[in-house]
Amino acid sequence: MNMRLPAPLFNRKIDSHKGDYGHVLILAGSQRFVGAPVLSAASALKAGAGLVTLGVPHGLYPVIASKVAPEAMVLPLPQTRELSLSAAAFKEIKDFSSKTDCVLLGPGLSIKSGTRQLVCSLTDSLDVPLVIDADGLNCLTGRLDILKRAKMDVVLTPHPGEMADLCGYSVGDVQNKRKKVAKDFALRYNITLVLKGYETVVASSHGEVYVNHTGNPGMATAGSGDCLAGILAAFIGQGIPAYDAARLAVYVHGLAGDLAAKDKTQICLVASDIIEYLPKAFKSISK
Question: What is the CATH classification number for the domain harbouring 162?
Fold first, then answer.
């Protein structure tokens, strides 16, 4: 496949500064899931984001700050009693988001009631492009009309189980008609949809459909989706349109996984290997 590469990724101006390549805000993490935000942040940085800020429950700040890449910033935010992001964080996030170029919402977020309220409020009101992944998707189940009111581009990144919950279908129905399900959903809600899995499908809000052919079964491992979400948010933050960013993200993500599996085998592949091999993937496609 010939993937057209957006100019900013490989032709950086000689007088560049970090602000030229996007500030990504990642809202993620909860008591049981402290690794997801770390993987998403590392992926976004490796995919070229100029700045990455992790917004996390303040009770988890010490743990996550000690694990995240030193290049990332960490923003402690109001939390629920269960150590997930609270609806009380809305104003602070809304104000902070005005300084960013893309918001990633969902990795390891949980579906506590206060967190659900926060996700819905942010989807309804943010003024920057939004990538919604993992528990961010689960928080929207049954409230999808919010997507139609979104002010900026929205990209959803469900796996087949999450897609089934969003649509009210069985997983079998989703898998049997992957392209149709993705296309219909993207058109109905005016969003870009990334339906993950074997031959990931990307559908645009205008009815375009792309089927990806990179990737391998070794990538069926915890944290792989968090890496993809970080890469995608980084591309959007660098000014690449949502549908193009989604196609490029799934391609590069899969290619990095293929290169990692070649060296490490599929059975030994873990999500952090995908991040490790992103430079080789970019080098490969830059040629």
Answer: 3.40.1190.20
Residue 257 belongs to a domain: no
Say what the pTM is.
Answer: 0.96
**Residue 197 belongs to some domain of the structure:** yes
Please give the residue range of the domain that contains residue 123: 21-252
Name the packing angle between helices 242-264 and 278-286 (round to 10°).
Answer: 110
How many whole angstroms from its chain centre is CA 28?
A: 11
Query: 177-233, pLDDT tens digit by residue?
Result: 999 999 999 999 999 999 999 999 999 999 999 999 999 999 999 999 999 999 999
- For the stretch 91-122, pLDDT in tens is 999 999 999 999 999 999 999 989 999 999 99
Give the residue among 207, 39, 221 at the shortest CA–CA distance from 196: 221
Q: What is the total count of domains within the chain? A: 1
